[in-house]
Q: What sequence folds into this?
């Protein structure tokens, strides 16, 4: 708990604009969830769906926190870091506002069949903001690929696996756009949404795993092996589901879901159990284990 408080205080002190943006997204998701509960339904005729806006706001809030962590790892000078942050915040606040406004008015902000020309232009701006995310993360990926720092070894390793998973998320997003152009009703197929969400979640999960491992006394080589296993499993599962989405296959039965969950949860559970076991060791044994 102490580590979490210290991390939150550091985040607030070093990336206040990003922290405020993340809190705004969390607040939007909470308020929309309460409004849905009061109304009894997330749907707003003819196309609006407030649940998607709430989920999207929460996802963008988490994305902002993760992006701030990656920005701290990136080998950028202060001016480059400030420009990156400025563009990123614009690209987050626009979807916050546009998604909520359109869904509250009953219009699908991404794949509408009833929007007017001004709203169509707003949808183009939304697409441009999503492409800006791709370019911003390409800058981070290039910076992290060049960095060599033993002190950030586990975080760098997690970031690289997470960026590989996020690349698959971007690919799934492009596939959704192409699918919508062919068939508007197929853009939100279950397989497409699973692949997009699974690949998106890889980055925060893997960075969280590296954070846990760094604060345990697990031997460095063991920690790297566990992180390699978790990262490889996440990227492989994401690639599998993105491939299924491209092939237009159904999600499959319970066995496929259980297999995917096992491949992802197994390594994460191993990391947590290893970390907890090290925390129960006496201080001297933890120090010896960390030096191995």
A:
């Amino acid at each position: 708990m102490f580590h979490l408080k210290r991390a939150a205080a550091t985040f607030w002190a070093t990336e206040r604009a990003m922290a405020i943006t993340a809190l705004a997204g969390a607040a939007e998701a909470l308020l929309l969830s309460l409004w849905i509960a009061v109304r009894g339904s997330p749907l707003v005729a003819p196309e609006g769906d407030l649940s998607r806006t709430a989920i999207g706001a929460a996802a963008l809030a988490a994305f902002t926190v993760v992006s701030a962590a990656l920005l701290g790892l990136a080998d950028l000078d202060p001016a480059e870091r400030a420009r990156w942050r400025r563009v990123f915040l614009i690209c987050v606040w626009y979807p916050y506002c546009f998604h909520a406004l359109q869904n509250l008015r009953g219009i699908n902000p991404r794949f509408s069949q009833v929007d007017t020309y001004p709203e169509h232009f707003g949808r183009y701006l939304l697409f441009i903001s999503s492409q800006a995310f791709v370019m911003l993360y390409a800058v981070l990926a290039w910076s992290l690929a060049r960095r060599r720092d033993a002190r950030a070894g586990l975080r760098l390793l997690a970031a690289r696996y997470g960026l590989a998973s996020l690349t698959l998320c971007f690919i799934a997003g492009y596939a959704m756009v192409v699918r919508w152009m062919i068939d508007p009703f197929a853009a939100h197929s279950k397989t497409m949404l699973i692949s997009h969400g699974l690949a998106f979640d890889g980055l925060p999960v893997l960075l969280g795993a590296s954070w846990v491992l760094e604060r345990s006394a697990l031997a460095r080589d063991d920690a790297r092996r566990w992180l390699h296993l978790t990262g490889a499993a996440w990227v492989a599962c994401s690639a599998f589901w993105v491939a299924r989405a491209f092939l237009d296959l159904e999600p499959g039965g319970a066995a496929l879901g259980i297999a995917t969950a096992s491949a992802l949860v197994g390594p994460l559970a191993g990391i947590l159990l290893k970390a907890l076991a090290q925390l129960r060791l006496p201080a001297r044994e933890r120090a010896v284990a960390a030096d191995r």
In short: DSSP finds ten helices and two strands in the chain. The mean pLDDT is 84. The chain has two domains: 1-147, 150-292.
